[in-house]
Design a protein that fits this description.
single chain, D-Maltodextrin-Binding Protein, domain 2, Bug_dom1, Tripartite tricarboxylate transporter substrate binding protein, about 325 residues, 2 domains, disordered N terminus, alpha/beta, globular, five-stranded mixed β-sheet, 11 helices
C-alpha cells in the first residue's frame, strides 16, 4: 500500500504554491466582474415624449456612451412622459441600483415636483452621473402672429385677460415658472395649457392651438430649422447666447427673468462603486467627444458639462431657490 501514498513532506511543500494560486484567483474575481459590465442592455429613461429636446439629445448621447462603456454596451432609450416629468423621474429612482437603469432628470421639474406635491423622489434619490445641457427659456409664437416683441404680447394680454393661451411641458416646469414670472412682471393673466413634452408644445404652436409656446431656445431653433414657422420673442438668459445672438433677452426688453433647464443623467441611489465610476467616465468622455459636440450643436443643444459633485451643488442651490419661490408664488394650478 505504501507505493500509493504521497509523502507528508511533499504535501506540506506544495501548500504555499497552492495557497498563492488560490489567492491569485480570488484577487482576479472582482476584476473580471467589473470588466463584464454591462452584461445586458441598459435602459435610459426620458421623462418626456419622443421628439423633444431631452429625447433627441438622449438618443445621440446613448450611442457615444455605448462606445465609451465598451463590452458591446447597448443603451435603449425609453420614454415615460407625464405629470411634468414625475413619472419618468420616479421610474429611475425606483429602479434597482444595478447600473441597468439610468435616465435624464430635468430642472426645475425634478426639484419643483416634490415641492408642490407628494412625490416618490427628490433630487437626492439619485446617483448623479453628470449634467449635459443647460438650455435657456424662450417665448415663441407662430410666424403669422401679430406679436413681434414681449411688450406687444404683454399689451394684448393686459387688454384681454385670459385670452392668450400658452403651452408648457408641465406644471412646475421651467416654462411654467418663467411664464408666471412674466405674468407678475407684466401685470397680466394668461391661460396655461400643460403638455407632456416639448414635442407636444411644438405641435400645438405649429397648428395654432396655442398663442405662445414657452419652450427652451435650443428646442425652438431646432423646430424652426425643421421648417416650423416660428418667431422667437426673447431668451431667458443673463446675456444673449451663441445660439441666438440676434435675439434680445427678456431683461433687455424690460422683464428681469432668467430661467433655464439643466438636463443631466442620473441613476437610482446606491450604484456599486465600480459601476458608478464606469458610467461617470463614459458620460464625461462622451461630452468631451468632438463628434458628439458637433452633433449636439446641430440640434441646438447648448452643452454645459458638470461632474457629479458640481451637479449636486447646482441642484442643492436650485432646490433652495424654488422652495423660497413656492412660499412667495405657489405655481400649482388650482
Amino acid at each position: 500500500m505504501q507505493q500509493y501514498a504521497t509523502p507528508r513532506r511533499k504535501i506540506l511543500g506544495a501548500l504555499p504554491a497552492l495557497f498563492l494560486a488560490g489567492a491569485a484567483l480570488v484577487g482576479m474575481a472582482p476584476t473580471a466582474a467589473r470588466a463584464a459590465y454591462p452584461e445586458r442592455p441598459i435602459n435610459m429613461i426620458v421623462a418626456y415624449a419622443p421628439g423633444g429636446g431631452t429625447d433627441i439629445i438622449a438618443r445621440v448621447l446613448a450611442k457615444y456612451m455605448e462606445k465609451y462603456l465598451g463590452n458591446n454596451a447597448a443603451i435603449v432609450v425609453q420614454n415615460k412622459p407625464g405629470a411634468g416629468g414625475a413619472i419618468g423621474f420616479g421610474a429611475v429612482a425606483a429602479a434597482a441600483p444595478d447600473g441597468y437603469t439610468i435616465g435624464f432628470i430635468n430642472t426645475p421639474n425634478v426639484l419643483t415636483v416634490p415641492i408642490e406635491r407628494k412625490a416618490t423622489f427628490t433630487w437626492e434619490s439619485f446617483d448623479l452621473l453628470g449634467n449635459v445641457v443647460d438650455d435657456p427659456g424662450n417665448f415663441s409664437v407662430h410666424a403669422d402672429s401679430p406679436y413681434k416683441t414681449l411688450g406687444e404680447l404683454a399689451a394684448y394680454a393686459k387688454a384681454n385677460p385670459g385670452a392668450v393661451s400658452y403651452g408648457t411641458t408641465g406644471i412646475g416646469s421651467d416654462d411654467h415658472l418663467a411664464t408666471m414670472m412674466f405674468e407678475k412682471a407684466a401685470g397680466v393673466k394668461m391661460n396655461h395649457i400643460p403638455f407632456k413634452g416639448a414635442a407636444e408644445v411644438h405641435k400645438a404652436i405649429a397648428s395654432k392651438q396655442i398663442v405662445v409656446a414657452a419652450m427652451n431656445i435650443g428646442e425652438a431653433l431646432q423646430y424652426a430649422k425643421g421648417g416650423t414657422p416660428l418667431r422667437n420673442l426673447g431668451q431667458m438668459s443673463v446675456a444673449r447666447t451663441n445660439l441666438a445672438p440676434g435675439l434680445p433677452t427678456f431683461k433687455e426688453q424690460g422683464f428681469d427673468i432668467v430661467m433655464a433647464s439643466l438636463r443631466g443623467v442620473a441613476a437610482p441611489k446606491g450604484l456599486p462603486p465600480a459601476v458608478r465610476e464606469a458610467l461617470v467616465k463614459a458620460l464625461e468622455k462622451t461630452v468631451q467627444d468632438k463628434e458628439f459636440q458637433a452633433q449636439a450643436a446641430s440640434y441646438f443643444a447648448p452643452l454645459r458639462y458638470l461632474p457629479p459633485a458640481q451637479y449636486a451643488a447646482e441642484l442643492q442651490n436650485g432646490d433652495a431657490t424654488f422652495r423660497a419661490l413656492w412660499k412667495e408664488m405657489p405655481w400649482s394650478d388650482k
